């Protein structure tokens, strides 16, 4: 069931989203060679708690951390660890969110650890740009398929592939709500976008083939071919005047 939010509810949700965005910014600034993913996770946890909110990923379906921190060929859901040290040239995807006032925020970005290859930079740039291409299609009266089609066309035309096993989602009082928001689709098809809908748009884009696999830990998702993957996400509200990015600082 799709839950439409009132203006007051959107204002409350915006507060959770601002905290989510602030935590992601701090976590991204901590991405440096020699830093562990556990250290970055603690930075995010401490910030969210200091703001009076709760990390909404922590213990969600048993997930053991505040943030998902995925390195290089890890697509999503990488578990932070004290022995996971970031190296020069890594690309590090951080996905996290906060819950406040009964509402959730969710956002993600991929960060460079020092100097990265030109190919890795092009992947990250394309994935980030495709998020905004998708957001431009998040307009009242449009369809979910408009968003996914725009993202896929943008990335595939640049030689990258779109992960299909994992998609964006509705968000609100629950971290994951209807509808699903794939990063692929057909224009004019899918759920109609209505004012008051709030969705997490999150392209997960691979340098190589689209195939992914889940590791034995039950969480970490990697590319099957071992090539790099990038991930960017914003929580977006559908409004009569166009899309509003709630996780934008």
**Which percent range describes the beta-strand content?**
15-25%
Question: What would you report as the Rg, rounded to the nearest angstrom?
Answer: 17 Å
Question: Quick one: overall form?
Answer: globular
**Main sheet summary:** 5 strands, antiparallel
* Percent range of helical residues: 25-40%
What is the CATH topology?
A: Creatine Amidinohydrolase
Mean pLDDT: 98
Can you describe what's shown?
With 249 residues, this protein is α+β, with helices and mostly antiparallel strands. It has a single domain (7-245), classed as Creatinase/methionine aminopeptidase superfamily (Creatine Amidinohydrolase). It has 4 helices and 17 strands. The strands form 5 sheets. A 5-stranded antiparallel sheet has the order 10-9-11-16-17. Strand 13 and strand 14 (221-223) form a beta hairpin. It is globular and about 45 Å long. The two termini are 29 Å apart. The model has no long low-confidence stretch (mean pLDDT 98).
Summarize it.
With 249 residues, this protein is an alpha+beta fold. The chain has four helices and 17 strands.
List the helices and strands and how they pair.
Elements: H1 7-29, H2 37-50, E1 54-55, E2 68-71, E3 74-76, E4 91-96, E5 98-100, E6 103-104, E7 107-112, H3 118-136, H4 144-156, E8 161-162, E9 168-170, E10 177-181, E11 198-201, E12 204-206, E13 212-214, E14 221-223, E15 229-231, E16 234-239, E17 242-245
Antiparallel strand pairs: 1-5, 2-4, 3-14, 4-7, 5-6, 8-12, 9-10, 9-11, 11-16, 12-15, 13-14, 16-17
Helix pairs in contact: 1-2, 3-4
């Amino acid at each position: 069931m799709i839950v439409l939010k009132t203006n007051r509810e959107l204002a409350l949700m915006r507060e959770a989203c601002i905290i989510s965005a602030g935590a992601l910014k701090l976590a991204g600034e901590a991405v440096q060679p020699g830093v562990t993913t556990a250290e970055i996770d603690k930075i995010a946890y401490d910030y969210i708690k200091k703001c009076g909110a709760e990390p909404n990923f922590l213990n969600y379906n048993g997930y053991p951390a505040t943030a998902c921190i995925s390195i290089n060929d890890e697509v999503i859901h990488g578990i932070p660890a004290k022995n996971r040290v970031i190296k020069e040239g890594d690309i590090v995807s951080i996905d996290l969110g906060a819950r406040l006032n009964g509402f959730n925020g969710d956002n993600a970005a991929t960060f460079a650890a020092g100097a990265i290859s030109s190919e890795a930079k092009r992947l990250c740039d394309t994935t980030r740009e495709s998020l905004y291409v998708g957001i431009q299609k998040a307009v009242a009266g449009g369809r979910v398929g408009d968003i996914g089609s725009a993202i896929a066309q943008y990335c595939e035309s640049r030689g990258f592939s779109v992960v299909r096993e994992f998609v964006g989602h509705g968000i609100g009082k629950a971290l994951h709500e209807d509808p699903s928001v794939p990063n692929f689709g057909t224009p004019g098809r899918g759920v109609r976008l209505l004012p008051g809908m709030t969705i997490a748009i999150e392209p997960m884009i691979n340098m190589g083939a689209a195939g992914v696999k889940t590791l034995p830990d039950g969480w970490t998702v990697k590319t099957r071919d071992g090539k790099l993957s990038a991930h960017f996400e914003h929580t977006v509200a559908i409004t009569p005047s166009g899309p509003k990015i709630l996780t934008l600082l």
